[in-house]
């Protein structure tokens, strides 16, 4: 399809009435068989067939059309580029498509604009070029804006021919003045302001033209806008001012000008960042100096990151010059962030030597050592660098220290740290510890711990020292770290989001044959400082990892797991993030022996997690044997969760018929019998819970046991009959209908939907037949929408799944019902015949016509069924029954106008054979059918556009169905 097709089909669509909706079942079903000779297949009518049909009817001027088809559009575009007015005019006279695009999408009008050919621009506009059609997502006025001194004249021409001054474009919905500001187009900006464009208008990101100009560094535009009254202090969506945006892009000239004009130097955005914060991070020395001179607060604190000063941003980014300037003007070198990290620590972790040296001097004085080995180790960004330094230093130390030394001596570590001073000691020790652990150097680790390294430090990998020791399964290192205070319950801070404790790591790594794996776990547990339930939920905890191995195929692993579990029994009060206890884990994995073991050490068998689920409620989801076991262990059978759901509701919602049978049929000793109609906070009984989750077996069992069908849900007011009809549960509906106490089959929910209406909405033909046979009224109109069940059935897709199709078509079932009103109108005045035509139901159309329904009925807008018909077989059936092919609606739109505007190629051919008038004009836009066709370009363009319109109709149909179901 040519690019022209896209533009013209949208243009044509824009001229059709806004409420015309053509809904298609699917892409394939909309290429239905055309009921004419020679086209009895499922393919679109060939272009040549349409052309021959039209030529036969003398619809077009063949000679002019031939000339148009023979045009060389490369020559046409070249003539425009070179300003050949006469050639352009001649080709337009010969029928050249005025919107025909080049290979890169440029229209003739856009080409003329970029070449500044004013006379050709005027000619194209006079001949009907679309003055607002976007090219590269921007309307012509945007392209005109960038034409420098030519912009005012071109913009004025576009406006004279209907160009939209307020047009917006792009993902941020900028207008022409925003675009001029972004591109620094002073001529266009001045002209647009003179034409009345609001200088305070914002784009979707909240940026004014002034902010755009400041951000891009266009000082002349900034001056113009301020001279015209732009708000100097206006804010964007993130609360940034023009000064901040200029600072963020290092536009020093603009920053200087804005400051001199009175911009507030300490305004901050939603993250608490000021212009000084931003420029410090970027390293914009000139702007930093300007801001400081204007009194910017050098110790202002951001909110995200929490409590960062401009000096912190500079240090973290390695902006040494900026950092020096800030410190010399009073920036506090000792301040800490909200996470307790100092400026020096930020600089060291980032590995920026120059900024570290500046901070060392600021904190320790000019004599503080700034070239030490300790400093090099502290700022090293890799273990390889640290290892290299640590390998070299002992050799060097042997020559410096007069005492004899050997490889077993570690005095050099203290010497290195002392040489670096206290300010870099922590950073150096952290990196040295990381390297020592990686090489499993127990002696060096012990020495570093003795010298004061933090045993719970977080390395750049997000792991603690204990994580590394556990990973390499080095018992000496683990014991050493635990004795030094390492926390075995501290989770890692993995950048990928995983947060595992050392115990978790040990259990995950534990497998049959792993050396020291069991010993590592035992060592961690014996510290008595572990958390066995650390994790998001019961299944993600270390305890669950071990319990899962109780079902392992390897007997040795099972024995080891049992041993570990026994050693974990002392943590019965530990909970996961969702409040689950070890008892919940034992129930989830069906470990009866573990449940008894936990009870013996005092675990609460009725403990609830954060959602209020007790172990019994957890078991009710899946395991009748576990439910029975828990009840024998004094579990509270009447417990409910935070939503008021008890064991019956949960079992029903999970389809657990055996659990329901046990709970309703067992003698629960001192417990009162469970209420089969217990209602939760949402008004759901166990029966409603089973139906809502589509567990028909559970629903039928509850009905057999006498569950009431009269309870209603709190939100929609639907009872079991509504919900079963909606879910297409035929057997459940039959069972409910057997109940002699059902006194009103037409009961309405809060939205005034009856069970029959819901069955039509959800295309449940078997349920519809059953409801009708028991006396459901098909003529009840919804007070809100005006729709009756028949209207809804006809608006649904006529094609169903093979399983549903076995039970018939809901619309046909209703039409064959003796009490149905086949001429009832919906809120838009459409009869069932209108809807059958519009929604492609050929069988329903034939049935309605056979019952004598008139094809001349008009809806509220004067449209007959033929106006809404896209399928050729339906169109032919309507015409065969006397439909007027030239009937005009309230705006004079005939069926042929609708067919052309929506590219109903096959329906168009049927209408033309029936002598539909091509010269009929509408009253709203005054176009004839021929003229509407010409808006698509060539005949080939129009025919080829059919598929895109079908896709568009299918998308809209799907959206309509989703919206209807979401509403319900």
TrEMBL record:
Compositional bias of kind Polar residues: 1-18
Any Pfam family hit: Ank_4
Residues forming coiled coils: none
Chain spans, region Disordered: 1-22
Protein name: Ankyrin
Domain of life: Eukaryota
Keyword vocabulary terms for this entry: ANK repeat, Repeat
Classification via InterPro entries: Ankyrin_rpt (IPR002110), Ankyrin_rpt-contain_sf (IPR036770)
Ranges occupied by ANK repeats: 104-132, 205-237, 238-270, 271-303, 306-338, 339-361, 461-493, 578-610, 682-714, 751-783, 828-860, 891-923
PROSITE patterns in UniProt: ANK_REP_REGION (PS50297), ANK_REPEAT (PS50088)
Keyword Zinc belongs to the record: no
């Amino acid at each position: 399809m040519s690019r022209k097709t896209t533009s013209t089909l949208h243009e044509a669509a824009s001229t059709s009435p806004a409420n015309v909706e053509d809904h298609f079942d699917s892409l394939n079903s909309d290429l239905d068989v055309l009921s004419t000779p020679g086209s009895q297949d499922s393919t679109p009518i060939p272009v040549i067939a349409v052309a021959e049909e039209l030529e036969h009817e003398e619809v077009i001027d063949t000679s002019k059309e031939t000339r148009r088809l023979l045009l060389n559009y490369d020559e046409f575009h070249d003539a425009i580029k070179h300003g050949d007015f006469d050639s352009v005019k001649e080709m337009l006279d010969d029928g050249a498509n005025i919107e025909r695009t080049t290979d890169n999408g440029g229209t003739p009008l856009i080409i003329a604009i970029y070449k500044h050919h004013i006379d050709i621009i005027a000619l194209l506009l006079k001949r009907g070029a679309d003055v607002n059609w976007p090219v590269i997502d921007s309307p012509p006025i945007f392209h005109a804006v960038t034409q420098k001194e030519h912009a005012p004249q071109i913009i004025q021409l576009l406006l004279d021919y209907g160009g939209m001054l307020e047009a917006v474009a792009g993902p941020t919905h900028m207008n022409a003045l925003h675009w001029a500001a972004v591109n620094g187009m002073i001529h266009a900006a001045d002209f647009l302001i003179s034409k009345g464009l609001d200088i305070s208008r914002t784009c979707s990101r909240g940026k004014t033209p002034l902010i755009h100009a400041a951000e891009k560094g266009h000082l002349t535009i900034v001056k113009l806008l301020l001279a015209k009254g732009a708000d100097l202090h206006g804010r964007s969506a993130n609360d940034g001012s023009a000064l901040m945006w200029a600072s963020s892009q290092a536009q020093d000239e603009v920053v200087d000008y804005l400051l001199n004009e009175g911009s507030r130097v300490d305004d901050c955005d939603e993250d608490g960042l000021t212009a000084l914060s931003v420029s410090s991070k970027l390293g914009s020395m000139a702007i930093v100096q300007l801001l400081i001179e204007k009194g910017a607060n050098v110790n202002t604190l951001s909110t995200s990151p929490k409590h960062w000063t401009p000096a912190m941003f500079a240090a973290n980014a390695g902006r040494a010059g900026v950092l020096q300037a800030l410190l010399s003007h009073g920036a506090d070198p000792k301040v800490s962030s909200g996470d307790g990290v100092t400026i020096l620590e930020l600089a060291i972790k980032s590995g920026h030597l120059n900024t570290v040296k500046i901070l060392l001097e600021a904190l320790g004085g000019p004599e503080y050592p700034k070239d030490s080995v300790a400093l090099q180790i502290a700022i090293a960004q890799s273990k390889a660098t640290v290892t290299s330094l640590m390998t070299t230093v002992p050799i060097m130390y042997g020559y410096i220290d007069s005492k004899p030394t050997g490889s077993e001596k570690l005095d050099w570590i203290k010497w290195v740290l002392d040489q670096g001073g206290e300010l870099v000691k922590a950073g150096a020790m952290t990196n040295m510890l990381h390297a020592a652990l990686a090489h499993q150097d127990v002696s060096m680790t012990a020495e570093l711990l003795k010298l004061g390294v933090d045993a719970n430090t977080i390395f750049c990998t997000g792991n603690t020292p204990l994580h590394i020791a556990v990973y390499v399964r080095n018992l000496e290192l683990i014991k050493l770290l635990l004795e030094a205070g390492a926390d075995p319950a501290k989770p890692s801070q993995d950048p990928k989001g995983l947060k595992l404790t050392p115990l978790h790591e040990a259990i995950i790594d534990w497998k049959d044959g792993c050396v020291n794996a069991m010993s590592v776990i035992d060592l961690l547990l014996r510290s008595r400082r572990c958390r066995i339930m650390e994790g998001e939920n019961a299944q993600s905890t270390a305890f669950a990892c071990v319990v899962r191995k109780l079902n392992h195929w390897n007997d040795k692993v099972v024995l080891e797991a049992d041993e570990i579990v026994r050693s974990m029994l002392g943590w019965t009060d530990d909970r996961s993030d969702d409040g689950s206890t070890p008892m919940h884990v034992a129930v989830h994995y069906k470990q009866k022996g573990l449940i008894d073991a936990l009870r013996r050490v005092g675990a609460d068998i009725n403990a609830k997690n954060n959602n209020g689920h007790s172990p019994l409620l957890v078991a009710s989801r899946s395991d009748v044997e576990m439910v029975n076991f828990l009840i024998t262990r004094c579990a509270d059978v009447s417990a409910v969760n935070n939503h008021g759901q008890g064991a019956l509701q949960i079992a029903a919602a999970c389809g657990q018929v055996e659990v329901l049978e046990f709970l309703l049929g067992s003698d629960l000793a001192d417990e009162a019998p469970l209420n089969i109609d217990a209602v939760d906070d949402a008004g759901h009984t166990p029966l409603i819970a089973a139906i809502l989750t589509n567990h028909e077996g559970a629903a039928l069992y509850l009905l057999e046991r006498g569950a009431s069908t009269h309870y209603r849900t709190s939100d929609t007011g639907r009872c079991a009959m509504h919900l079963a009809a909606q879910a297409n549960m035929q057997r459940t509906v039959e069972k409910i209908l057997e109940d002699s106490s059902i006194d009103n089959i037409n009961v309405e929910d809060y939205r005034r939907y009856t069970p029959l209406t819901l069955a039509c909405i959800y295309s449940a033909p078997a349920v519809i037949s059953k409801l009708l046979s028991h006396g459901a009224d098909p003529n009840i109109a919804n007070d809100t929408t005006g729709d009756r069940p028949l209207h809804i059935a006809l608006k649904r897709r006529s094609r169903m799944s093979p399983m549903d199709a076995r039970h018939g078509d809901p619309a046909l079932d209703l039409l064959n019902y003796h009490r149905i009103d086949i001429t009832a109108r919906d809120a838009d005045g459409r009869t069932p015949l209108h809807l059958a035509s519009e929604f492609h139901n050929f069988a329903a159309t034939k049935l309605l016509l056979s019952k004598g329904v008139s094809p001349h009925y008009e809806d509220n807008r004067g449209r007959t069924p033929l106006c809404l018909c896209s399928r050729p077989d339906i169109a032919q059936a309507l015409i065969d029954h006397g439909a007027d092919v030239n009937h005009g609606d309230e705006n004079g739109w005939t069926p042929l106008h609708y067919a052309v505007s929506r590219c109903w190629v096959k329906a168009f051919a049927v209408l033309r054979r029936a002598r539909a008038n091509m010269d009929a004009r509408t009253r709203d836009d005054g176009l004839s059918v021929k003229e509407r066709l010409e808006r698509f370009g060539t005949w080939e363009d129009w025919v080829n556009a059919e598929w895109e319109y079908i896709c568009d109709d299918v998308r809209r149909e799907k959206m309509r169905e989703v919206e209807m179901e979401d509403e319900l």
